[in-house]
Amino acid sequence: MGEGELKLLGTWGSPFAIRVRIVLNQKEVKYEYFEEDLTNKSELLLKYNPIHKKIPVLVHNGRSVCESLVILQYIDEAWSKSGSSVIPTDPYERAMARFWAAYIDDKVIQALLGILKATTEEEKTYKISETMSVMELLEEAFEKCSKGKTFFGGDTIGFLDVTLGSYLTWLKAAEKLSELILLDETKFPKLVEWTEQFLSTDCVKEIMPEVEKAEEFITKTLKPRWAAASSK
Amino acid sequence: MESHKGVTLLDFWVSPFGQRARIAMAEKGIEFEYKEENLAQKSELLLKMNPVHKKIPVLVHDGKPVCESLIIVQYIEEAWPEKTPLLPSDPYQRAQARFWADFVDKKVYDCGSRLWKTKGEEKEAAKKEFIEILQILESELGDRKYFGGETFGYVDVAFVPFTAWFHSYETEAGFSVEESAPKISTWAKRCGERESVKKHLYEKEKVYEFVCMLKKRLGIE
Asked: Which residues touch A62 (CB under 8 Å, ≥6 apart)?
């Protein structure tokens, strides 16, 4: 099932692409990577994701799979014999993993963008407290899912680890640019410990972008873009 | 409550999301207890079983809650694997089914709601968008009996509850599903003949009554 030609269309910073790359790395699956320019989408992207025109897109033997969480489940099923399982095998644990992955994707970007885009101190404070509430829930979720082990997925990195972990570069960039600590070990000791374990894992280290690169992108590209949009 | 054996569904009668779970369980012949929630006054049980979102549907299986309708349907599929599979066995086909169910989830309800919540230009824009969504789905369906192929499957379960809202959408926005996406219209009628769908979807007039009541409550002309 898992043989054949494999391509991945992504961008260096997209958490959605990062998580797919970590899993492919973990399963030691070879693929050809295409860095997309989202301001000038390639023929390949438009061909393989005509519906949403977004990355990541996995193209396996000429057939495309879109939406990062769908891709992760596909990789797990198509390369079931390589590496460890990405998503748990027990139906209830799978439901929990899917629930928290959806929650993470719904809340984390909004929380970080909220902090970075805040124009007043009041707004920033409010956005920070919203983010703290999200992290409290994730700390609890970690306890429930990890059952005392290192990762959300247990002994090895799984679905939830890569979903949340894929935001870490941006989270750290937001911390530095906004001069605050979100990953506070007094408030979220388990999450902080997990972050260190996750980031030091080989299959992750090779993929996660540098925080400085993210900071630069926010400062030089995103912030001017947001300022231009709001002044219209 | 924790040691309560069996399946309970916390739900709201007209919710298309709740209906996904009801239809999935009906297709698989799974017995469950239905609990109608008063959304203006959510029960202790709902708040306990879904503290994060406080929404229905919630499936409670042997005391353990599963939330979010498509996650519930996938759970039903995986916890009762021996009964009438809703997903194909091939990984690529499964990925396609998950993609299209996600597409329905992202697009249909939000755009559909705008058909009756908005007026004038906004409504026209929503109508155009909704017709496009139907046509994209029609293109995916092609000449097949169901989105699942020969068998009623995951994507059919995800989309079919919205067929009860077609009449409301058509009436509010002034268009016809049959004209804009005839294959979807045929598919909807075909699904409507299934026992599970007949049992768990409400008549279009009842749904429209509900939409009108909501409009009044929200102060929409």
From this structure: A5
Question: So what's the ipTM on this one?
Answer: 0.95
| Chain centroid to CA A137 | 17
Is B20 within 8 Å of B56 (Cβ atoms)? no
**DSSP helix/strand/coil, B104:** helix
In chain A, the DSSP E strands lie at 6-10, 32-35, 57-60, 63-66
Separation CA A150–CA A155 (nearest Å): 6
Q: What is the pLDDT of residue B1?
A: 44
A71–chain B Cβ distance below 8 A for any pair: yes
The DSSP call for residue A219 is I
Q: Half-sphere exposure of A215 toward its Cβ, with a 13 Å CA cutoff?
A: 11
User: What is the C-alpha separation between A81 and A1, in angstroms, rounded?
Assistant: 10
CB contact under 8 A, B71 and A51: no
Q: Which tokens belong to B80? A: 């009762």
Per-residue pLDDT, A2: 59
Q: Which sign does the torsion angle of CA B11, B15, B17, B18 carry?
A: positive
Say whether pLDDT at A3 is over 90: no
- Determine which helix (DSSP H) or strand (DSSP E) holds B65, and give its type and residue range: strand B64-67
| Pairing, β A57-60 against β A6-10 | antiparallel
Yes or no: say if A167 and A209 are a contact pair by the CB < 8 Å rule: no
Q: What is the mean pLDDT of chain B?
A: 96
Condensed to tens digits (0 to 9), the pLDDT of residues B65-116 reads 999 999 999 999 999 999 899 999 999 999 999 999 999 999 999 999 999 9
The answer to whether A218 contacts chain B (CB < 8 Å) is no
Which amino acid does the sequence have at B2?
A: E
C-alpha to C-alpha distance for A22 and A28, rounded to whole angstroms: 10
Specify which residues B115 forms β-bridges with: none
Closest-CA distance of chain A to residue B208, Å: 30
By C-alpha distance, the chain A residue nearest B101 is A70
Residue B212 Cα distances to A97, B124, B163, B169, B208, angstroms: 38, 19, 17, 11, 6
Q: Which tens digit of pLDDT belongs to each residue from B147-200?
A: 999 999 999 999 999 999 999 999 999 999 999 999 999 999 999 999 999 999
Q: Is residue A119 scored above 60 in pLDDT?
A: yes
Quickly tell me which residue has 């004038």 as its tokens. B120
